């Protein structure tokens, strides 16, 4: 019997079977009469530098060899509860799909380069030949380091290494009208004009393979001191185990009665495809342009961003569904307004947002480590920022900001929703970022890192580029852009229903302007609501004036009494590469034996579509 000849595919943010060029190529070549390999090993690694993996230790007495996966500026857990759950579900969904093709998915924890090195060594000892190691290209400092480490491990073993083009985006890299990242325009509109018309830009979708090569007959186990779970539930439990349920907050938000999540979805390709089909049949794609600034509910925006971020679905798959609906090519959506009538304002707007995701990923390619530096892409050294790790007043303000007790209704509602559900809308993300960076003049990276920890749809390029954009250090052509959260509440939460959903202390109020600016309550109303002396009522972090009408500014009552109308304003070292074996995005490192403790053309798009 001949020795196994194995192809290893290291997955990262490409957790799908359909429209995946690697799986397509493996299926194609395995159908040939002479197979270049006999076995196929897809593998996913929970990366220790980005996700806390100490929950996978085989016993509580074991010590992880990796530093805690905490952020650079504030020391937050880099992957919080919501995203950890969604990620685990996505990995296991792909594992089930691959099993149905005759293959499978191995799960590991650690650093990608080390994991591949260990596998190559173990297969060599077992007289099994690894013919190649494949992985998909990703943008980011850590991601490039992973690619380098895996390539070096393969080269040391004399094994072929191939880095595939990342095809989860709207426009394929090979179709972008420039090759040098420096040629990317610094303004989105200029880039958009280079790649229009958008309806004709994407490549065709690759179909899902029905059969793939089997796993190797013998696969090396996860090295000590970690063990790999055998169910998705156990995986989620191990990812959650080391995380403080309150993520370090002394007074975290609690779930309000009758509040429901706007993002109750499960991870994985299966759920992502179901969501796309729902958006077609419900007509939500067609109405997207009119509803995308909504704050409550499931379908005001597409909510596809979580699946897009992990590569469970691709932008061009979304485009294909849009095309089929617009041209009436399939029965899906038949009878829905707009079916078979070509591109409409809603479907065009969805494509527009998908292009924003492309653009921000390309800015990461262009600017590299500058994505994480406080000076931003613009190398702004003139702005003055408050640093919570350096002064107590900034620390106090950041704590209230994170806990949703700033005293500005829209901001507090969003921060509470984010902590409790892992989601908050694009409109709110813009306001929150502007509030921290420009109203409070606090180090904008604190907000970017908190979003990284909390958001279920966190995407490196979209998150960090957007925070720079709103903070005024990124590629926003309007440097002085400031969101007024009181005016924005007046425009988008007219009756205060969103704020009252998450800020339960204000639910008894009927005057929206007091909901938007609770500090304008008169003493009688404070006493009635038992809010007298409450810090965020009495002492908001910022008193943002936005007055409408002759009676603006007066204290308001619960029963429609007169009240002020509500409205808004601005205000290190980045994550450089460290030395040694384990690298964060610039964090200084301590061994486990020393310490694992960390430190507590239009409006910007966070692209939560």
Automatic annotation (TrEMBL):
Record GO terms (molecular function): damaged DNA binding; deoxyribodipyrimidine photo-lyase activity; FAD binding
Keyword hit for Flavoprotein: yes
Function: May have a photoreceptor function.
Protein name (Swiss-Prot/TrEMBL): Cryptochrome DASH
Residues the record marks as site: Electron transfer via tryptophanyl radical: 385, 444, 467
Compositional bias ranges of the Pro residues kind: 211-223
Composition bias, Basic and acidic residues: 586-609
Positions with biased composition (Gly residues): 563-583
GO BP, sorted A to Z: photoreactive repair
Binding-site residues for FAD, renumbered to this chain: 288, 301-305, 457-459
Cofactor(s), names only, from the UniProt record: FAD; (6R)-5,10-methylene-5,6,7,8-tetrahydrofolate
Organism: Letharia lupina
Keywords: Chromophore, FAD, Flavoprotein
Transmembrane segments: none
Photolyase/cryptochrome alpha/beta domain segment(s): 5-169
InterPro entries: Cry_DASH (IPR014133), Crypto/Photolyase_FAD-like_sf (IPR036134), Crypto/Photolyase_N_sf (IPR036155), Cryptochr/Photolyase_FAD-bd (IPR005101), Cryptochrome/DNA_photolyase_1 (IPR002081), DNA_photolyase_N (IPR006050), Rossmann-like_a/b/a_fold (IPR014729)
One Pfam entry name: DNA_photolyase
Region annotated Disordered, chain positions: 203-224, 548-609
Family: Belongs to the DNA photolyase class-1 family.
Tree of life domain: Eukaryota
UniProt keyword annotation of Cell membrane present: no
Cofactor note: Binds 1 FAD per subunit.
């Amino acid at each position: 019997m001949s020795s196994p000849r194995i192809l290893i595919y290291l997955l990262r943010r490409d957790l799908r079977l359909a429209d995946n060029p690697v799986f397509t190529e493996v299926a194609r070549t395995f159908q040939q009469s002479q197979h270049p390999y006999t076995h196929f090993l897809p593998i996913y690694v929970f990366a220790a530098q980005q996700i806390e993996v100490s929950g996978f230790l085989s016993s509580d007495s074991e010590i992880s060899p990796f530093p805690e996966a905490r952020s650079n500026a504030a020391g937050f857990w880099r992957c919080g509860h919501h995203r950890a759950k969604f990620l685990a579900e996505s990995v296991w969904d792909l594992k089930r799909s691959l099993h149905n093709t005759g293959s499978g998915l191995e799960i590991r924890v650690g650093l990608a380069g080390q994991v591949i090195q260990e596998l190559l060594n173990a297969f060599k000892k077992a007289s099994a030949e690894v013919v190649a190691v494949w992985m998909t290209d990703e943008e980011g400092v850590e991601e490039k380091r992973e690619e380098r480490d895996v390539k070096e491990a393969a080269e040391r073993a004399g094994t072929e290494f191939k880095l595939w083009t990342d095809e989860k985006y709207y426009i394929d890299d090979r179709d972008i009208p420039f090759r040098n990242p420096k040629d990317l325009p610094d303004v989105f509109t200029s880039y958009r004009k280079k790649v229009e018309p958008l309806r004709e830009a994407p490549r065709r979708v690759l179909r899902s393979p029905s059969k793939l090569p089997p796993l190797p007959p013998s696969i090396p186990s996860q090295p000590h001191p970690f063990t790999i779970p055998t169910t998705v539930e156990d995986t989620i439990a191990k990812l959650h185990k080391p995380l403080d349920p309150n993520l370090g907050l002394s007074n975290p938000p609690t779930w309000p009665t009758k509040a429901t999540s706007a993002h109750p979805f499960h991870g994985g390709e299966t759920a992502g495809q179901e969501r796309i089909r729902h958006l077609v049949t419900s007509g939500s794609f067609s109405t997207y342009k009119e509803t995308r600034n909504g704050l409550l509910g499931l379908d005001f925006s597409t909510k596809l961003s979580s699946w897009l971020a992990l590569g469970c679905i691709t932008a061009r798959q979304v485009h294909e569904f849009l095309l089929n609906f617009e041209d009436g090519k399939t029965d899906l959506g038949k009878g829905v307004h707009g079916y078979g009538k070509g591109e409409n304002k809603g479907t065009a707007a969805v494509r527009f947002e998908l292009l924003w995701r492309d653009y921000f990923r390309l800015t990461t390619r262009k600017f590299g480590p500058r994505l994480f530096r406080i000076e931003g892409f613009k190398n702004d050294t003139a702005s003055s920022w408050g640093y919570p790790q350096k002064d107590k007043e900034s620390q106090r303000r950041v704590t209230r900001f994170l806990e949703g007790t700033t005293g500005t209704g829209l901001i507090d509602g969003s921060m509470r929703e984010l902590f409790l559900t892992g989601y908050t809308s694009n409109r709110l993300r813009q306001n929150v970022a502007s509030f921290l960076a420009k109203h409070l003049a606090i180090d904008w990276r604190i907000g970017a890192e908190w979003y990284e920890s909390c958001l279920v749809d966190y995407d490196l390029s979209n998150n960090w580029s957007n925070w720079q954009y709103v903070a005024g250090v990124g590629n926003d052509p309007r440097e002085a852009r400031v969101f007024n959260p009181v005016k924005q509440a007046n425009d988008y939460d007219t009756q205060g229903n969103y704020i009252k959903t998450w800020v339960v202390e204000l639910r008894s109020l009927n005057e929206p302007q007091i909901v938007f600016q609770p500090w304008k309550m008169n003493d009688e109303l404070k006493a009635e609501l038992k809010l007298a002396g409450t810090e965020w009522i009495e002492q908001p972090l910022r008193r943002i004036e936005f007055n409408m009408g002759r009676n603006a500014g007066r204290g308001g009552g619960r029963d429609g009494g007169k009240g002020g109308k509500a409205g808004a304003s601005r205000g290190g070292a980045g994550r450089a590469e460290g030395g040694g074996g384990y690298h964060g995005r610039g964090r200084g490192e301590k061994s486990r034996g020393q310490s694992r403790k960390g430190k507590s053309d239009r409006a910007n798009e966070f692209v939560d579509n």
